[in-house]
């Protein structure tokens, strides 16, 4: 079959898979409920979704190319897809049979403009790794290049022949499926599928442009210039093009090789703590982070000679990152949105939370903000009043229940997480999993706490001050409330106010009680967050503030119940 025929067959397989399962979904999720058979439709739904994901898994492995990336991308879309699908696709690996070396040689020589014998003094025809978009071979630079660069051993990343055509074909098929979905109101009201596909397309096209990856590597190296904890391989620009990337061979101990770490005298628990610190630095200090920190992309490199300061004193190793095809930014708008979310969450302000979410860029035009405010307030209220130490004592099953409920709310409302935010979630998820595998006692909250405080301080100020201003504002309103009520009563007695309900006094009393509860909630948040921030500098004062915050919290939670029961005997 010709290449054109192969590409057409590939497109047909993708479209047939999509059409078949869209029809199945329409039958169970739209048609049967409309004819009164909703219970029948709900029966075995979980197993049905798992089968769809399993079939896609088989299709992706068979087709390779971009379809494996599609599966990996979908596995991270917890905001769009049910857990039965995302869980099944989590294990989809980017490993495929290698391309025969003669085909790789032809492509590399066409890109470099010279024979491989002239470009390198040696290149291993057996790849170190083979993925859906390219494969990696060890090599040694020629004497001239070695003298110019100061490097000798390198790795050469070479694209699979024809991959750009496959990517274009796959994206064209995916865009067609997205158009189909955009005409289904049940889908279009909740997610902008064409935008999702375009978001995925941008990431994919950047990933097959090795000049873009090389620029990412240089930017990452600049971010950590002078930081002895992090290493980045040097680039060999003379042997780098859009489809061939040559860089220093930095192969060392894989970060998840616990036995290898111990054999080198390196404590895996210390590696876990330092790795979390480095990843948080990328997110909250540099605003530019490695979005694919899986074990194959991070080495622990022993240092020769003097060590560098670490969590446990002088450390004689560092992290070496590779593969910079997937990187993420934390833009100013996202930081500001996160700051607003923190302030609103601390003051239990549902509308403020929605405003922060809107600024982050996740709300679709069809979003019902009132419903979103109620949902977010309800979900956050479970854990919003807890400090980090308290969260560590929460039953993990409760966290899982919260995650499932929150996922259901997210999928039922018309919003989606932007790419930057998803990359953050992906990076943090991989970081947490990696650290837990290195140290079973590792707790991510211990690493989050100092960086959350740092982010709050960096984003325009002190969260305590912001909450304090809200508290003062609310306190002012409450302070003026009795005078306003007196004035209102006087106007009622004079007949200048038209009273339309005999329950006015009760409503006014409810208003006053609500005002007091608002002040209590804001005061609780201010004391709690102030305690968290001050604890690093003064443990006694910080602990006292956190303990005292319980009093306004109890008033905010139970004042309404006590008011209904009347005064205690």
Task: Give a brief description.
The protein has 569 residues and is of the alpha+beta class. The chain has helices spanning 3-34, 38-42, 45-63, 66-75, 83-89, 101-112, 116-119, 143-149, 163-182, 185-188, 193-207, 210-223, 258-263, 268-286, 332-346, 350-360, 369-380, 388-392, 396-412, 419-438, 444-458, 463-494, 504-535, 539-548, 550-565; strands at 120-123, 129-130, 134-141, 153-159, 230-231, 244-248, 253-254, 288-290, 298-302, 308-310, 313-315, 317-321, 327-329. It contains 25 helices and 13 strands.
Q: In words, what does this structure look like?
A:
The protein is of the alpha+beta class and 569 residues long. The chain is built from 25 helices and 13 strands. It has helices at residues 3-34, 38-42, 45-63, 66-75, 83-89, 101-112, 116-119, 143-149, 163-182, 185-188, 193-207, 210-223, 258-263, 268-286, 332-346, 350-360, 369-380, 388-392, 396-412, 419-438, 444-458, 463-494, 504-535, 539-548, 550-565, and strands at 120-123, 129-130, 134-141, 153-159, 230-231, 244-248, 253-254, 288-290, 298-302, 308-310, 313-315, 317-321, 327-329. A hairpin with a 2-residue loop joins strand 10 and strand 11 (313-315). The longest helix has 32 residues, at 3-34. The model is unreliable at 460-464 and 498-504 (pLDDT under 50).
